[in-house]
Amino acid sequence: EKDCARFVEEVLRKEFNCQKVFPQHRSSYIRDISVLKDEVLKLNKTQTPKDGDIILMDSQRQACHVGVYAKHLGVEYVLHTDKDMLTSCLHKISDIQNYQYFLNGFYSWQ
């Protein structure tokens, strides 16, 4: 089982050669969620995201959720997973509210 932070780390490492590591001691989404959010908030917030930037979201199921930004043919997407998904998902950012995710911002590690 891979949570959203581990998935983002893997995508950044494999696709962008980024060695960003989120705190490793997370054993549940709720108990350590402030640690994950604090780590993302240390990054540079941007209004003009690039492929590979981190998207911070909230959802009805969890207080903090992260994904990876991608733009293809002018359409903005978020690549992400969570503990209830059996695979990764690529959602249009304009549609994420339909899946009960709420955008909190784009953060650049680059």
3D architecture notes:
The chain has two helices and six strands. The protein has 110 residues and is an alpha+beta fold. A six-stranded antiparallel sheet has the order 1-6-2-3-4-5, covered by helices on one side. It is globular, with a radius of gyration of 13 Å. About 5% of the residues have low confidence.
Terminal CA distance reads 28 Å
Q: Helicity range of the residues? A: 10-25%
Query: Beta-sheet strand percentage?
Result: 25-35%
Rg, alpha carbons = 13 Å
Put simply, the count of helices is: 2
In order across it, which strands form the biggest sheet? 1-6-2-3-4-5
- Poorly predicted spans: 26-31
From the spread of the alpha carbons, the general shape counts as: globular
Overall mean pLDDT score? 84
Instruction: Encode the helix/strand succession as letters.
Output: HHEEEEEE
Main beta sheet, described?
Answer: 6 strands, antiparallel
Number of strands: 6
Structural class: alpha+beta
